[in-house]
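Retry 2 of 3 after timeout on previous attempt. Resubmitting structure tokens to design endpoint.
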């Protein structure tokens, strides 16, 4: 499907002096945008090198001390560098915000490939175009009731097991399942019961992080939580 682009700005309707002034500003802004995209990739490459060099657990501390950045901020730079560090044309054609979105783990691979190919032939790639295509892609997806039916590594939907059917109240059946908080014990809680509830909640949070952020960023978040807890 071709990208529906907004009509070109009508420079002809402007007075000659205004047309010349705005045209020159547009060219300067395009150049600044390109240089910003180049800087994003260079920053990402430097961050990847520092992260590889530092001992485990030191990267977040270094980021905070030197730049006041979170690991989330650094991850965005590094993701762009990893995805597009060797593709010079996308730097020229894609806006910085489009680069961040295209590099995100949650962006479908076919969307990423589509816009990379468009950039390769010189078409401008905007955040708005990428966001709209991702929304179209998500609307076309077949809903999957059970998150366990998706392969964590490939993202592919696994074949349903015909021998397994959801019982009423089963979490895999959204039509009948309604989450209820754990009952408040009348007496002292059982250690095993507390541990089971904690594990269940941790699994729920983990699966939601993977769904919302993608596996790579979810692991980054978990790593940061571990560092805080271990401090």
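Retry 2 succeeded. Sequence:
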């Amino acid at each position: 499907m071709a990208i529906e682009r907004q009509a070109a700005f009508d420079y002809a309707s402007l007075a000659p002096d205004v047309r010349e002034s705005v045209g020159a500003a547009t060219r300067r802004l395009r150049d600044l945008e390109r240089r910003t995209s180049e800087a994003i990739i260079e920053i990402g490459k430097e961050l990847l090198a520092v992260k590889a060099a530092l001992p485990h657990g030191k990267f977040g501390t270094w980021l905070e001390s030197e730049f006041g950045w979170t690991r989330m901020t650094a991850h965005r730079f590094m993701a762009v560098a990893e995805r597009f560090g060797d593709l010079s044309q996308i730097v020229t054609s894609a806006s910085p915000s489009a680069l961040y979105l295209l590099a995100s783990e949650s962006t479908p691979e076919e969307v990423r490939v589509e816009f990379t190919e468009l950039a390769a032939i010189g078409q401008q790639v905007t955040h708005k175009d990428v966001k709209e295509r991702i929304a179209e892609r998500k609307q076309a997806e077949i809903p999957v009731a059970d998150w366990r039916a998706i392969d964590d590594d490939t993202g592919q939907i696994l074949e349903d097991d015909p021998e397994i059917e959801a019982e009423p109240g089963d979490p895999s059946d959204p039509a009948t399942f309604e989450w209820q908080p754990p009952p408040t014990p009348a007496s002292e809680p059982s250690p095993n019961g507390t541990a089971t509830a904690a594990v269940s909640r941790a699994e729920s949070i983990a699966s939601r992080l993977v769904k919302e952020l993608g596996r790579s960023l979810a692991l980054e978040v978990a790593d940061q939580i571990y560092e805080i807890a271990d401090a």
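Attempt log closed. Residues 34 and 121 are 16 Å apart (CA to CA).
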